[in-house]
Amino acid sequence: MDKVINEYGKLLNGIDISEKHHRGFVGGMWEEMGRLQIQFMLENGLNPKSKLLDIGCGALRGGIYFIRYLNKGNYFGLDINSSMIEAAKYELQHEGLNDKNSTLLVNDKFEFSLFESEFDFILAQSVFTHLPLNHILRCLIEVKKVLKKDGVFYVTFFKAKLNNFLDSIEHPLGKVITNFDSNPYHYPFEFIEGISEKAGLNAEYIGNWNHPRNQKMIKITHQ
Q: Which residues are CB-neighbours of 76 under 8 A, at least 6 positions away?
């Protein structure tokens, strides 16, 4: 997979991390988005014994909340950007959470099997919004390998309608402009549903979950 498919390929240095520039680099709203993620997951069955895979974990904007809540060793985070994983380690140290034995991995092909674990819950918050469809399909295929039979994969995306998905769309919340063929991406739900089926998974549209930039939620399970 091309490591520079969007601006997220930039690497931050140690000074950037010590000055917490990574908190803006992952989209800002550090505490707001962290709280929103764990609130949603708690409302949908996450408990301390759950094993959680956080795809595109970044610098742990949501991960800090999950790690604090979950039992030791139950949080797994993967990101394509090595400097974000370094920033994640900084945040763990800053929050006094190193003893929670979280597992963090830099990987550019969604090779979740490297964790050698299966997951009750998988989350990809603001990941599909930055990926072309072929990368999304790869992600789904790899998710199927590690999602428990009764597990759930929650993923956010910018939604487009079938009759205008080729047009740029300005989303009223956050004033984000999305596109079908350039970053940030939008897709009709039917497209995600279709490639999920190709990967042997079932996609269910959930929709609103109070995301400040109008990303919608999808629930994906085994067929």
A: 51, 52, 53, 54, 102, 103, 104, 105, 115, 117, 119
